[in-house]
Write a structure and sequence with these properties.
There is one protein chain. This protein is α+β, with helices and mostly antiparallel strands. The chain is 42% helix and 24% strand. The chain contains 27 helices and 32 strands. It has an eight-stranded antiparallel beta sheet with strand order 3-2-1-8-7-4-5-6. Strands 24-25-27-28-29-30-31-32 form an eight-stranded mixed beta barrel, surrounded by five helices. Strands 10-9-14-13-12-11 form a six-stranded antiparallel beta sheet, with helices on both faces. A hairpin with a 4-residue loop joins strand 4 (103-107) and strand 5 (112-119). Helix 1 (2-29) runs antiparallel to helix 2 (33-48), helix 12 packs antiparallel against helix 13 (500-517) and helix 18 packs parallel to helix 20 (726-737). The radius of gyration is 46 Å and the shape is elongated.
Length: 886
């Protein structure tokens, strides 16, 4: 009898050894983990004659799923594919599975459990002999097994990298005792499974790495292909989105200066009506490196933690290291944007296309970020089969009543970003960064060869190419273009007196103003030194060029400020028109240069057309001159008036008469459009007399209407003032119009007054003796000396509008106005501030005891009718008044 028992035991041992060999062989020859797991549970069930053997794998959240199962004759229901909540296995049991590699045998009928520990829980060292302990089973667990139909079980932990990967469980519908041999075989099989899991993990990593390398190589080849840049980047974005299982993506290349504007490439689903890269979140992550650069100090980097606490962000923050030394870019992986406070304000924009997850990767090296790669993922719907329903709050108090499967469906779920996906995204972003920077460097080299380093404008070489091409296109399309040669007046004095550093700053500021005067598409270059060339494409007439030149001259009227220096700079411009003044670049430039010198000969600070450009399209100036003669004959001029206000009383005390030209074709024209031409042609004297006569007539008419008497100020030109009969002409007009001389005020500029001081004093004395008031206009912009001012017979001093405009912009502007007011008061002159446009300026002038003010704050120049209405109202302006609209 004993012999038969020994033979039976020997056969069992052989079968067990055979089983172990089969599984070990399968592990060695198979590369698929699932196949190994399925074979293991099947063979092990046969060996142990179990009713069910299952392998249960844990998820990161602690729940688990049965991923392999073998059942005998349907003795027990299948649990394959079912999930179990984390609370089914207590935390203490999980810890002991890892620390002691303990296996548990339960006999439900006897309410008895046997715990075998292979390792010491305290030290983790393998025990020489198994630590076997016995205990009662928790009543809740007994009921749990009975509900499942199980009366004995064996549970063995499966470890991987010292973590609890899963458990192997054998279930029996009847009581079952396990021999030591069987337990050793089971343990050996579990150890083999751990090897298989490690093998599968390494294989999966190798496959993923190979796949990622293929993707990276493909993207790298695209980035360096000879295709158009836009096509390359769009294709790369599409491939990247596909590789990362996205539903859409964006590649944003940030701008750099004025030479490289921002570029945006998109594919797939996109948030509508949203420039996400301009949002606070994207702006912040693209600048995060600068925020995280830390110096080598003893303090910890903990102060940077939590900047994006809701985001899965990989940060390299080892104490004692400088973060900026890392090449690998940061990643911002958001699984659910609706749960992210940082994106709460943007979530509605993503809702339309059900975008739920975002991966943002700045294109960054150290603290330099040149853009961002963003991948979107749509929301998903998940289905989970759970093993039996149970009240989660009572799960630890009593077991579930059934293990029948129930399906949990979750909608509008975000997808997590896996570690291998983040690694791939990093690699792709690095290649995108390097490719973009390479192109920028190449573009920079090309740019430096064709542009001026100081101003950033095109240089002579590039301008010649642009002009040559433009001439050909203009000839083919029968268009006209203009070349302007510009030279700064007096620039040499700036370099000689203030140094080349200030001179360079001035050139940069001038180039910026000139560029702003051009239309979109026109070209400008620094020709050399203080010379600039401009190219105006497809102009319709010479008036287009005149408008641009006048805008340039006007823009240079505002002073430049450098290191507390206030500089005034003017320019002379020469114009050549194609095809009239040349049909090639060289001829046009030569003729424009010649015209520029003519502008200098005519007093600088003006523009001149090339003299051969007298034709239908280039004779606008000549036509204007002819029209000016006609205007005098046909009385096409009219007067506008701007009130001068007593700052203390707020009352109108005088009106300045300003001439306008009602051109029959061009409409109302300001004096800047025709007065310079009138001065050059000598017609200005006739215009001055007309203005003086009509201003006096209008003032007399206002007095007859019963309006309070007030002065009318009239400007005299330099040519008119220097006429030998100026005093007689004024006296004659006063007599003919019947106006009292005390109601007439004559304004002359500093430049006029200082041209011939002796002559000026003589004329002004005669006018004052007649009772006419005298104002020195544009004070501060000329070259008057204190001695000259002392001897000039004046009544008023008018502070130029440029100083008033600069009044609130710094100490220097305020200081000049203070000195001017103090000077006027010291000479017993009334001081008038021109160009007052804001309440702040008025309050400041009032605090300085300035007498009068004039400007848009009170009123713009008005027609006769509007001025009459204003005077009838006898309007008073107080310091609490609000500015008037222009």
């Amino acid at each position: 009898m004993a012999r038969k028992k020994n033979i039976k035991m020997s056969r069992a041992a052989v079968e067990q050894e055979s089983l172990l060999n089969r599984i070990t062989t399968r592990i060695r020859h198979s590369l698929e983990l699932q196949e190994i797991l399925t074979t293991t549970v099947k063979e092990l069930r046969n060996l142990l004659e179990s009713d069910r053997v299952k392998i249960y794998r844990f998820e990161p959240d602690g729940s688990g799923e049965v991923i392999a199962e073998s059942i005998k004759d349907n003795n027990l229901p299948s649990l394959l594919g079912l999930h179990f909540p984390a609370t089914d296995i207590p935390k203490s049991a999980r810890e002991m599975f890892v620390k002691a590699r303990q296996r548990v045998i339960i006999d439900v009928g006897l309410n008895h459990q046997t715990i075998n520990r292979l390792d010491c829980p305290e030290t983790g060292k393998t025990l020489a002999a198994e630590d076997i302990r016995y205990a009662k089973v928790d009543p809740c667990h007994i009921e749990y097994l009975r509900t499942m139909g199980v009366y004995s079980s064996l549970t063995v932990p499966i470890l991987h990298h010292n973590q609890l990967w899963g458990i192997l469980v054998c279930h029996h519908t009847q009581p079952k005792r396990f021999s030591d041999r069987e337990l050793k075989i089971v343990q050996l099989l579990v150890d083999q499974l751990s090897i298989a899991i490690a093998q599968s993990f390494l294989l999966s990593q190798a496959r993923q790495q190979a796949s990622d390398e293929a993707i990276v190589n493909q993207i790298s080849s695209l980035l360096h292909s000879p295709l158009e840049l836009a096509e390359i980047r769009h294709t790369v974005l599409e491939q990247t989105v596909k590789s990362l299982a996205g539903c859409g993506g964006r590649l944003y290349i940030a701008p750099e200066g004025v030479n490289w504007p921002a570029e945006l490439y998109t594919c797939g689903q996109q948030p509508q009506h949203l420039e996400i890269e301009k949002s606070e979140f994207w702006q912040e992550i693209m600048g995060l490196k600068q925020l995280l650069i830390v110096e080598k100090k003893e303090e910890s980097n903990d102060k940077y933690s939590g900047i994006f606490s809701d985001i899965q962000i990989e940060k390299h923050q080892e104490k004692g290291l400088i973060i900026a030394n890392y090449i690998i870019p940061e990643l911002y992986a958001i699984s659910d944007i609706f749960q992210s406070p940082k994106l709460k304000s943007l979530s509605s924009y993503f809702l339309e296309f059900s975008i739920r997850s975002i991966l943002a990767v700045p294109l960054q090296y150290r603290d330099q970020c040149i853009g961002c790669l963003t991948i979107f993922r749509s929301e998903i719907e998940t289905e989970t089969l759970w093993a039996g329903q149970c009240d989660s709050e009572a799960r630890n108090d009593r077991p579930r009543k059934s293990f029948a499967a129930w399906k949990e469906i979750k909608k509008q779920q975000g997808r997590n970003w896996k570690a291998d996906e983040l690694k791939l995204a990093k690699s792709l972003a690095t290649h995108l960064y390097m490719a973009a920077m390479q192109r920028r460097v190449e573009a920079m080299i090309r740019h430096q060869a064709s542009h001026d380093q100081l101003t950033g404008l095109a240089n002579k070489l590039l301008f010649n190419e642009q002009l040559s091409l433009a001439v050909v296109n203009a000839h083919q399309n029968a268009e006209m273009l203009a070349v302007i040669f510009l030279d700064l007046d007096g620039f040499k004095n700036v370099n000689d007196t203030l140094g080349h550093a200030v001179g360079d700053q001035l050139l940069q500021a001038v180039s910026w103003r000139l560029t702003n005067c051009l239309r979109v598409g026109d070209s400008i270059a620094r020709w050399g030194g203080d010379e600039f060339t401009l190219l105006l494409y497809n102009i319709s007439s010479a008036q287009d060029v005149i408008d641009t030149c006048q805008q340039i001259l006007q823009s240079l009227c505002t002073p430049f400020h450098f290191e507390e220096q206030q500089l005034y700079i003017k320019a002379s411009l020469g114009i050549a028109l194609a095809p009239y003044d040349g049909e090639d670049a060289e001829t046009l430039l030569k003729n424009a240069d010649a015209a520029m010198y003519k502008a200098k000969q005519k007093g600088r600070n003006n523009y001149q057309f090339y003299t051969r450009a007298i034709g239908n399209k280039a004779s606008e100036r000549l036509v204007l001159e002819n029209n000016l003669y006609r205007a005098i004959e046909n009385s096409e001029f009219l007067l506008y008036y701007q009130p001068q206000i007593d700052i203390n009383s707020g009352k109108i005390v005088a009106l300045e008469a300003l001439v306008r030209w009602e051109h029959p074709d061009r409409g109302l024209m300001g004096p800047d459009r025709f007065i310079p031409l009138a001065e050059e042609t000598g017609l200005i004297c006739q215009i001055d007399e007309w203005v003086l006569r009509n201003a006096c007539l209008q003032n007399r008419e206002w007095q007859l209407m019963g309006l309070p008497p007030m002065r009318v100020a009239v400007n005299l030109s330099a040519r008119q003032f220097q006429q030998h009969n100026t005093v007689q002409t004024i006296a004659k007009i006063l007599s003919e119009t019947g106006i009292d001389p005390e109601y007439l005020e004559i304004e002359i500029t500093e430049t006029i007054a200082m041209t011939d001081v002796k002559f000026t004093v003589s004329v002004l004395q005669q006018l004052q003796e007649m009772g006419i008031r005298i104002s020195l206009d544009d004070f501060g912009t000329g070259y008057s000396s204190l001695w000259s001012l002392k001897h000039l017979p004046l009544n008023n001093l008018k502070i130029d509008r440029s100083f008033v405009a600069d009044l609130m912009n710094g100490a220097s502007g305020a200081a000049i106005v203070k000195v001017a007011i103090a000077l006027g008061q010291g000479l017993n002159l009334e001081v008038i501030a021109e160009g007052v446009e804001t309440l702040e300026q008025l309050e400041f002038l009032h605090s300085l005891k300035c007498d009068m003010a004039q400007g848009y704050f009170f009123s713009k120049p008005l027609s006769v009718i509007a001025t009459t209405e204003l005077c009838l109202e006898n309007r008073e302006w107080k310091l609490t008044s609000t500015p008037k609209s222009n």
